[in-house]
Amino acid sequence: MEGIYRKHIPISHIDGVKIKDGTKVFADDSYIRESILYPNAKVAAGWESIMPTYQGLVTEEELLQVIAYIKSLNQGQTPPRTEETPTPATIQNKVPNKEVN
Ligand code: HEM
To answer: For 61-74, how does the pLDDT look when each residue is reduced to its tens digit (9 = 90+)?
Structure first.
């Protein structure tokens, strides 16, 4: 999730319905909040809708802290990924963190 804050994120589905290719959403605080509470509301393009909801599992204060943390993540600030699946942020910015075969 490095570098997603205030970027335009390509999304593929809204509430389970496939939408036009190339549709983007502005990743502001409310998008991050919605993605945590209602992961199915807007699904990042290229990803399956597998994220579980955290509704009822986090307090408002915890939610604000997680959102603040995600907002603080700029590209290059977290350790290199070991997975070979690109993140939504790297898909958007076309800057892979790691060479993939
Ligand atoms: C601390 C727990 C979690 C937080 C705070 C969190 C937060 C988020 C946020 C803010 C997004 C939207 C980012 C974007 O559009 O690029 C997202 C997307 C996603 N998350 Fe999570 N997530 C969590 C846990 C999980 C878990 C446990 C899974 C899977 C087992 C998961 C799978 C995904 C996937 C596949 C996406 C991209 C597709 C989509 O937009 O739904 N997440 N998550």
So the answer is: 999 999 999 999 98
Specify the DSSP class assigned to residue 84.
Answer: S
Structural domain boundaries in the chain: 8-93
SS3 call for 64: helix
Distance CA 12, CA 72 (A): 25
pLDDT, one tens digit per residue, over 2-15 is 889 999 999 999 99
Query: Which of 1.10.357, 1.10.760, 1.10.3470, 3.40.50 is the CATH number of 8-93?
Result: 1.10.760
CA of 21 from ligand 1 middle (Å) equals 20
- Of 12, 26, 37, 51, the one to substitute when testing ligand 1's pocket (max ligand atoms within 8 A of C-beta) is 51
Closest atom, ligand 1, to C-alpha of 88: 16
